[in-house]
Design a protein that fits this description.
Strand content: 15-25%
Number of strands: 17
Largest sheet: 7 strands, antiparallel
CATH superfamily of the largest domain: Naphthalene 1,2-dioxygenase Alpha Subunit, Chain A, domain 1
Structural class: alpha+beta
Bound molecules: FE2/S2 (inorganic) cluster, fe (ii) ion
CATH topology of the largest domain: Naphthalene 1,2-dioxygenase Alpha Subunit, Chain A, domain 1
CATH class of the largest domain: Alpha Beta
Shape: globular
Strand order of the largest sheet: 11-17-16-15-14-13-12
Length: about 425
């Protein structure tokens, strides 16, 4: 394989077009992205209700890394690299479970749920088990969502990262919710092809009948991929149209402002908005009716017909209706594959007979299956030698924001170096 001059490749990008082919297809670029971009993010990985009891754990496996996320006997959730401190074996082999002791399958070194080494046979007298606990991975919990940061250095401040998004999370209180359903969608495409599809709703009308039936046409065109994804005049006209709704929310003390970050020099690309679902629907379900009980502050406020989108970074976002939430996690698998996982959340007090899983998952399940198909078709074309960067439409501006964020991250981390 010929050397890739990443500086030249970055310079060959032209604003308003898709990325040059090698960004989607080069394993060399992929390895650098994982190390220099993905591992430096605060990654949303799951919800605390997945591990409710002491000793409950699950693994978050990505690239060459495996992380054990485990609840200790003190009820504190911690994260450790799944690497034995003896000679490096994986300690946990099953994807999830409950363990009083994490026993390495190789020579049986045993660690407690807080990561301390408790037993190691035939070690010399000067061996101090206190020095050989499992190595910690950076972890943070916000409103019941678990975040990891796999950087090798000092992680960016989690508090600064999450601060602008907390008011939106507080509205829906995912900390008072539980997982109702989860599903993985394996996608045969590079992570950027996968993620950029979620930055535009140009494809929604032709590709997503269900999604387009739930929402109003102008919403789909102008706001389907968030504020700023369509021309300014149309955005202003749409915001004018929904003004009676936003004014009503102001009166009721319900947040509805948009948080938009297009200044990508910071390396952050957070986003949040609240809009009416439209068409008289109270929830994003097939019949427009609630599929579960109200959750979060809506127990007090009552319904408002709105939906909240919160995007943490290109690797995770959430949508909250008044009655359920859905967390999207985009995990790169290798250059040519990505895993998309959806986790649906309902109020933690609700009984199983009080919510309708089928109606709750319907829109995003159907839509994500459709997305998987169109992303894979897209990627097959990108793999062709005839692919060239194509022109973006007026309603794909958020795709350019994504490219700018990505290329700034590449430039900042690789500093124009030649990689091969
Ligand atoms: S590698 Fe784990 S006990 Fe030896
Ligand atoms: Fe889509």
């Amino acid at each position: 394989m010929s050397n890739i001059n990443i500086k030249k490749l970055t310079e060959s990008y032209s604003e308003g077009k898709s990325l040059p082919r090698e960004f989607y297809t080069s394993p060399t670029i992929y390895i650098d992205e994982i190390k220099n971009i993905y591992f430096n993010q605060w990654l949303t990985v799951d919800h605390v209700s997945r591990i409710p009891n002491p000793g409950d754990y699950f693994l978050f496996d990505v690239e060459k890394e495996s992380i054990i996320i485990i609840r200790g006997r003190d009820d504190v959730i911690r994260a450790f690299y799944n690497v034995c401190t003896h000679r490096g074996s994986r300690v946990c082999l099953e994807e999830e479970g409950n363990k009083k002791l994490l026993v390495c399958p190789y020579h049986a070194w045993s660690f407690d749920a807080e990561g301390n080494l408790k037993a190691a046979r035939f070690m010399p007298d000067d061996f101090d088990p206190k020095e050989w606990g499992l190595r910690k991975c950076n972890l943070a919990i916000q409103n019941g969502l678990i975040f990891l940061n796999l950087t090798s250095g000092e992680p960016d401040s989690f508090e600064d990262f999450i601060a602008p998004l907390i008011p939106y999370l507080n509205l829906h209180e995912p900390e008072n919710s539980k997982i109702a359903f989860r599903k993985k969608y394996s996608t045969s495409a590079n992570w950027k092809t996968t993620v950029e599809n979620f930055q535009e709703c140009y494809h929604c009308a032709p590709s997503h009948q269900s999604y387009s039936a739930v929402h109003e046409k102008d919403f789909v065109k102008i706001y389907g991929a968030g504020k700023g994804s369509a021309p300014d005049e149309e955005t202003t006209a749409y915001e004018e149209k929904i003004k009676p709704w936003t004014e009503e929310l102001d009166k009721r003390g319900i947040i509805n402002q948009c948080y938009l970050e297009t200044e990508t020099e910071s390396g952050l690309t957070r986003y949040a908005d609240r809009v009416p679902i439209g068409n008289g629907n109270e929830s994003e379900t097939e019949n427009g009716k609630f599929a579960s009980t109200l959750m979060g502050k809506f127990k007090k406020f009552g319904p408002d017909g709105g939906v909240t989108q919160i995007s943490f970074n290109p690797f995770a976002n959430t949508y909250f209706n008044n009655d359920f939430g859905v967390l999207f996690i985009f995990k790169p698998i290798d250059t040519f594959n990505t895993e998309v996982e959806l986790i649906w959340l309902v109020d933690k007090e609700v009984n199983e007979d009080q919510y309708d899983i089928e109606r709750m998952i319907w829109m995003w399940d159907v839509t994500t299956q459709e997305d998987t198909q169109i992303i894979e078709n897209n990627y097959k074309g990108i793999l062709s030698k005839s692919y060239k960067p194509g022109r973006l439409s007026e309603t794909e501006r958020a795709v350019s924001y994504f490219y700018n964020w990505y290329l700034n991250s590449v430039k900042r981390n690789l500093n124009g170096s030649h990689i091969s």
